[in-house]
Amino acid sequence: MQTTGPSLTGVRLVLAVTGSIAAYKAVGLLRILRREGATVNVVMTAGACRFVTPLTFEVLSGSHVASDLFEAHQEMLHLSLPEQAQAILIAPATANCLAKAVLGLADDLLSTMLLTTQCPVIFAPAMDGDMWQHPTVVEHVATLRQRGAVIVEPEEGPLASGRSGQGRLADEARILSALQAALHPRRDWSGRRLLVSAGPTQEPIDPVRFISNRSSGKMGYALAEAARARGAEVLLVSGPTALPPPADVELCSVTTAEEMRKAVISRFSWSDTVIMAAAVADFRPAQPVAQKLKKRRGLVTSLELSPTEDILKELGERRTTQVLVGFAAETEDLLAHAREKLQAKDIDLLVANDVTAAGAGFGSDTNRVFILDRDGSVEELPQLPKRDVAHRILDRVLTLPTGRRSTKPAVQTGTHRKE
Ligand code: CTP
Predict the structure, then answer these.
(1) d(C-alpha 237, C-alpha 309), whole Å
(2) Would the pTM of this model clear 0.70, i.e. be above it?
(3) pLDDT by residue (tens digit) across 74-94?
(4) CATH superfamily of domain region 12-183
(5) Quick count: other Cβ atoms within 10 Å of Cβ 303?
(6) Ligand 1 atom 26: the closest Cα is on which residue?
């Protein structure tokens, strides 16, 4: 495995292993952590000891492996280990471990340590796909994130159950890079003000019905969270979603395209960067009715739709020094449509994805995108969790000069950078 981040020389870590079949992968992880220079204390739950023996970790870490809370009590390990550690990495983390961390249960050494620690905690979950998708687990993951924990999402692929799904322990490189990011948080967005829009809009037909689209808001929320973590002040203008608001981000909730337009325009001068990740409705019912349409009316022969204002286009016309980023959700001729939009809306970057592709688009936790710029270059990113896509977009924005006034993009053709 090739490593790119800073070395771990002089870093003291706790590697906590919980009772998943992926516990054997923690052995490889420990070797990498040691190779990178870290001093590692391994803590195992009783479940983990059923899969791999503590002796394996003891030999490879060069120190005693703690697993029993009452034995550990003699040395106050539940206090001293987290106190000395610069980070606690839990890999693999079971659904049970996530639940205990959320509830603050303290019935074993690891869960007790999580109540005493002040250092960053990184969870790398591994479980069956259905468990990972279960609403309780989804809620626990969101809560832990809100509290500042890092979650390295499991990967898609064949699972120990013989099924296939998202549940495999993330690969070593991703875990290591999340650990390095937690140890050396990037503050490269500090001093910047990001306005990001997210989610769908809803356009009323009558007081109880609306037209909308399938956007979940996940991409916009991931952008807001990532930029905040990197030091930006963030305003999130969000249409209706089921997502918890990211911590320490100003949230402005809207429903219709016109409400979103007003919110975005009124704070445009505050921002230095706007990322329009929202799936703004392009059409609204021309004449929403004041009372609920009764079905006894029978056949509704037509629903007249009028176009909404294009917010991003308006920003392109009004901009002074802001960087503007748009999204394009397409179902065909992805790059051709994306180039047209970049030009028509007079923006700096356009993130395009084919919403019909597997592992991309609405509702998915991953995305496969192309990033197009005004100079005609196209960067293709591999399929990544939306959180990682967010960071890559933020990285790209930082390469753009701020303070450029609107000019029409010059080139339509260009290089195609592929990873
Ligand atoms: N957008 C916007 N206001 C609208 C519609 C879209 O600001 N009324 C923004 C979206 O947030 C996105 C970008 O414009 O960043 C692209 O939106 P999209 O609907 O895909 O493109 P359109 O220009 O509306 O073209 P079409 O629907 O024909 O694909």
Answers:
(1) 16
(2) yes
(3) 678 888 898 999 999 999 999
(4) Flavin prenyltransferase-like (3.40.50.1950)
(5) 11
(6) 282
